[in-house]
Amino acid sequence: MKDFKYYAPTEVAFGRDSEERIGELALKYGAHKVLVHYGGSSAVRSGLIDKVYGQLQKAGLAYVSLGGVVPNPRVSKVREGIELCRREGVDFILAVGGGSVIDSAKAISVGVPYDGDVWDFYTRKAYASVCLPLATVLTIPAAGSEMSDGSVITNEDGNLKKDYCTDIFRCKFAVMNPERTFTLPPFQTACGVVDMMMHTMERYFSHDDDMVLTDAVAESILRTVMDCAFKVLRDPQDYVARAQLMWAGSIAHNDLTGCGTTGDWGTHMIEHELSGMFDVAHGAGLAAVWGSWARNVYMLLPSRFARFAVNVMGVTNDFTSVEKTALAGIEAAERFFHAIGMPVSIPELIGRPATEEEILKMADTCTGGDSHSVGVFKPLWSADIAAIYRAANG
């Protein structure tokens, strides 16, 4: 068991009437003029944006707005937001949407007080010590960005997708009404399910396998998410199941499931290159490559994968072979992904096999030209990553 720090300062307002607290909470955390940052037209059509404006007006808060955030949020939109905030004297950012919107808001928050270009943080040329305070009204349970320390942004110049993590990114508050997720399309719902599962699994597959309580929490989250996935796909307005997914997305990525363990994150880094190159949905990309990653690394600690197989996937333990049990668990996870409409290969993801040139480019970019490895469970270099892409390509 590793020593650990657990830091989760975000205040959560959860439930059907949680939007009524937006103005109160914004005032509590020092807002005077707010940037309302959101994605596409659905937030407008649903009436949520007008609801947010009304709550801010009721609290006597001024605001400006910036929409247009897309999946795999772009640094160009971030730069637009930075300039708007500076011009309008914004001192608080409210993200209305899912992970992409929150990640974009986080990038804006560190970019406003910084003299250089915000991309510097994502390339580790600079490190942030100050940002505008931010909060969120969550509409898509998936990324967990509402309680995490991370932000992932795509630079259109080179299609580079990079993350930056800092505790100053932690939202001051998160307003979470499960009813706002009733209209999510099945594909988007399924992508969110995979994303929150992977946030748990990236921490779960660790050589630090003696943190029993943390493991039990992670296994419970995974089982609950899989159960509720089928319920909401059958009945999109199942409030109880939607609420479980919304809360699971938050606790899957607020570091609770990593207490006492060393996370891996190799699958995420491998997927970032896929969505950077092909602009695919993050959750779908994770599902497409996870099985190939797992088969590449499981023999380093097959007992860990066997535990996952039995305790999470419900596989019968083959006591004669821990390796067979481990492989059966990987196969069961892929069957689950298929069952909720997710791909388990690159051709299913992008509609064709990746070319060898594309594979080599992604593997090279992922490791910075072999200047560093990715992942901890098994450190992966460009040759390892290319092998994983090839396995997912067949």
What does this structure look like?
The chain is α/β, with parallel strands linked by helices and 394 residues long. The protein is 49% helix and 11% strand. The strands form two sheets. The chain has a six-stranded parallel sheet with strand order 1-8-5-4-2-3, sandwiched between helices. Strands 6-7 form a two-stranded antiparallel ribbon. A hairpin with a 4-residue loop joins strand 6 (150-155) and strand 7. The longest helix has 23 residues, at 212-234. The two termini are 38 Å apart.
Treating each run of at least 4 consecutive H or I residues as one helix, how many helices?
16
Describe the sheet with the most strands.
Answer: 6 strands, parallel
Cα radius of gyration in angstroms: 20 Å
- Coarse shape: globular
Distance between the termini: 38 Å
Taking pLDDT < 50 over at least 5 consecutive residues as the criterion, the unreliable ranges are none
Spatial order of strands in the largest sheet: 1-8-5-4-2-3
Give the percentage of residues in beta strands. Answer: 5-15%
| Helical content band | 40-55%
* Mean pLDDT reading: 97
Determine the oligomeric state from the structure.
Answer: single chain
Element-by-element helix/strand order: EHEHHEHEHHEEEEHHHHHHHHHH
How many runs of DSSP E, i.e. beta strands?
Answer: 8
Secondary-structure class? alpha/beta
